[in-house]
Write a structure and sequence with these properties.
The protein has helices at 3-25, 78-83, 175-183; strands spanning 38-47, 50-57, 64-67, 69-71, 88-94, 101-110, 129-135, 148-152, 158-160, 163-165, 192-197, 202-212, 231-237, 243-250, 265-271, 277-283. With 293 residues, the protein is mainly beta. The strands form three sheets. Strands 1, 2, 3, 4, 5, 6, 7, 8, 9, 10, 11 and 12 form a twelve-stranded mixed β-sheet that branches. Strand 2 and strand 3 form a beta hairpin. The chain is globular.
Length: 293
């Protein structure tokens, strides 16, 4: 091989090494991070080219976004959001793909007050800021009956409370479920509250906003054998409202009385431990759960 050819080969190798080294120093392509989700109320207005969604950042009413469309989870009911926009809080951000589309990660609907002596219209003007509730005491207690704190949405503010009251009470209102959705779920899935707080750090809940769908992940399915004649399977209800089948028990005589639920609530029943119906009043917009497994 001639010296000239060898020189050309060496030069080619050196050029290739130089190109590869330069490629290693080149910055890797960056991917724009997803914007941080925040919580908003929504007001819908007619625009020249269609509906316009004005999204006000909760606890920061001066910060308003406008979008021409909502990118909703498949479980959301857009027509209900249009009809009852004041009943909803949306968690999301402006889409990175389109500046006029708001991408919704979670949506929450307010439950009516269950007590007849309180106003039942969910679209009345509620007062107070929006919060997550957090257990603030020692021990495992996670309930509104324990020591709690309010974490203000869209901010780092935390309020240690001396007392908190809630209108969401009643004989057939499942307080175990309410405590579960307030305390036990992950940040995006847990329920929100609107509340007023006085100068003594005493809070009053004015709205309970439930993440939908509820239950968030659905309930497990069971395949159970039929009970013997004259017997009925009874069920227990878990904190997330899912029904858990138990053993078959003899059918007992049951009261004929069927209770009624307040406006905005639907009667739910299943065979209880004595084989007779166990009743609850659940918000009408949550998923109904039956015993057909």
């Amino acid at each position: 091989m001639s010296n000239k050819l060898i020189s050309l080969l060496l030069l080619s190798v050196l050029l290739l090494v130089s190109v590869l080294a330069e490629a290693d120093r080149s910055p890797a392509p960056t991917i724009a991070p997803e914007p941080e989700h925040a919580y908003y109320t929504v007001n819908i207005a007619a625009g020249e080219k269609g509906d316009v969604y004005h999204l006000s950042k909760v606890n920061n009413p001066g910060q308003v976004l406008s979008a021409s469309s909502l990118d909703l989870p498949h479980t959301a009911n857009l027509s209900d959001i249009h009809s009852h926009s004041a009943s909803y809080v949306l968690r999301g951000s402006i889409s990175t793909e389109s500046n006029d589309r708001f991408k919704v990660a979670n949506f929450y609907k307010v439950a009516r007050y269950p007590n007849s002596y309180n106003p039942s219209d969910p679209e009345e003007e509620r007062t107070g800021n929006f919060y997550h509730v957090q257990g603030a005491g020692f021990g495992p207690c996670k309930s509104l009956n324990c020591s709690v704190a309010l974490n203000e949405l869209n901010s780092d503010k935390r309020i240690m409370l001396k007392n908190i009251t809630s209108p969401y009470t009643g004989l057939l209102i499942d307080r175990i479920w309410i405590d579960f959705i307030l305390f036990e779920l992950e940040k995006g899935s847990k329920a929100l509250v609107q509340a007023t707080v006085n100068d003594k750090n005493e809070a009053a809940i004015t709205g309970l906003f439930i993440n939908l769908p509820d239950p968030t992940r659905g309930c497990p399915k069971y395949k159970m054998a039929a009970c013997p004649a004259g017997q009925k399977r009874w069920y227990s209800r878990s904190p997330n409202r899912c029904l858990v089948p138990k053993e078959c028990i003899p059918q007992a005589p049951c009261p004929l009385y069927v209770p009624h639920c307040p406006e905005g609530y639907t009667l739910t029943s299943y065979p209880g431990k004595n084989s007779c119906p166990k009743y609850w009043c659940d918000p009408s917009f949550v998923t109904r759960i039956g015993t057909s497994y």
